[in-house]
Amino acid sequence: MASCTQVDSLVQAYVDGELRDSERAILEQHLSDCAACRKVLREHRATAALMFEALAPHQLSGDLTPAVLSHLPHMDHVQSLAQEATWRIKNPRRATLVFRALVPALAPMLLFVLGFAIYMAWPEAESAGRVVGMVVHRDGGVLRSHDDSTLRHAVALESRVTPDERFETDRDSTLMINLAGPSQVKVDHNTRVKIVDTRAVNVEAGRVWLNVCKAREKFRVTTPLADIIVFGTQFAVDVNGNRTVVTVSEGEVTVEQGERFAVLHAGEELEVRPQAEPFTVREVPVAKVMAWTRRVQPDAVAQRRFETEIPSPASKVVRAYQVYRLDAGGRAVEAITLSWDAGPVGDRAGYDIYVFDDRMRPLVREHVSASVFNDPARSEYKLVLMPDGEPITNAGVLNIRTVPDFTEGRRETSFREIATHIY
Amino acid sequence: MHRATDAELVFRCLEGDTDTYAILVRRYQAAVHATAYYYAGRYGASEDIAQEAFWNAYRSLAHLKEPEKFGVWLKGVTTRTAANWLRRNVPRIMSETPLPQRRMVSIEDARQGPSGKLEGKELGERVQRAIDSLPERYRLPVILRYLQELSYEEISRFTGESRDEIRGILHRAGRQLRDVLVRSESSEGDARWHRVHK
After folding, report:
1. Which of A64, A83, A118, A197 to mutate to test the interface with B (most CBs of B within 10 A)?
2. Most buried of the four, A82, A250, A264, B49, by CB within 10 Å?
3. Measured at the alpha carbon of residue B33, what is the angle toward residues B28 and B38, in degrees to the nearest 5?
């Protein structure tokens, strides 16, 4: 157990909410056993309270920005540069001649040193390119890299995340990234994850937890074995060797592997393996599976900074996917036809079409390319439902879900009619 | 939209994008105001000085040699602005209204004073005495922390000391303030021989 002296050095930072998780654990453990240190803590808290109370009346009362900007003076750099130029013209011989003689030799060296320095410093100034998120928690060593470079660099708290960045934790480190939206990604030990964009993440190995904000556009998590498609939900993904496990704590998650797919709900888990073993969805104690996520909490300051610096678009939650119910009347169905009104084409999105039976058990999935909807000559698409080479006979009602895929175009198509073809 | 670094924002200002300066003002106004308060709070001029400091900083932005250390540089500008303001105004203010002089207060002085529930002005004065009794180097971080609730990271970015140094400073200052403000009546207090560690 930590000594009282060790603990004493932690108390102030504890009161200020500035301790690292590990230190906080040590301190709290000690406090639970030591009345003297609890007294010290109370005194520090009382002191802080007195200080805040006494200084509160003198706080900045409002935002200074409007007043400052409305009377912004002229910057004097133009003038100073002009003065310098004038001085040089007036004193052409004053510059050190020796230095001048060395310029041809020094310039390439200087350029090289500068280039090297910029190259080395580049990752910290990772502002180049679009920013999709921010690191809001980092405990232990975490490395980041880009696809186009073999260099890996240490990750700092509050550093910004650009598209296609890969993050790797080791056996002691954890990480949390907030993505514009906002969505949250918690990364456990020994994990490799690539942030493709604000709504696309690639889990290459290890465990991540995601809290995805609702949006029109689907959020896709890619793993070596399966793709996970969500709109707004909380779930965890565990990629370990030749299996991927998806656990859902809130909302609904679609897991796809090739032609196969399954829809999971809160409290359910699916283990995907490479061979074509049947998908079996099972119920699990989610809190237990996700216990590790409680260790990974955003740093309060980083969180605040994320909120102010990376604003999320106003949440206009329009459900992007549509669900249609078709009464097959107990007859064998071999296909369905989706039809739409011919209208302006170009920039139309593609669609993923999912077909479920009356109890929402998955039957068939098909991706319809955007080119189909962008073809002015077309106004319908026939989707063949012969999952095992046989028509679907056992469904009284078919549930059809149409999910736009905005990667090829931004405009949605509204379906006028979905009809069944009887076998 | 992302959190631009100070250096990026400075470059954008230098390129003529005045709106960018608003981001820097918002980022640092709490720290600049607290610094102004530290120097001239008793004259009620903190906000005027803070504004003036931002104007001075903008005017001389091109002279900033290390844009990534904008915060530290801005602290220097604020200090100079406050000093100039005091030089211009204090003789006049002093001749108009006699004000209590700020002086170095020993821990013993600061300890004296009524214990128990303190209110309003009395509390303010007692806390002010306690802050004045701190070593010079501790005072600004203490004001930044307790006046504007800045995080260690934010304080560090403004004062130029590392986050760990700030943590050490606030730890030692916290102990001394505790001895002065909360333990002042207790006999076992060690404040009299309180060691100030580097």
Report:
1. A64
2. B49
3. 130
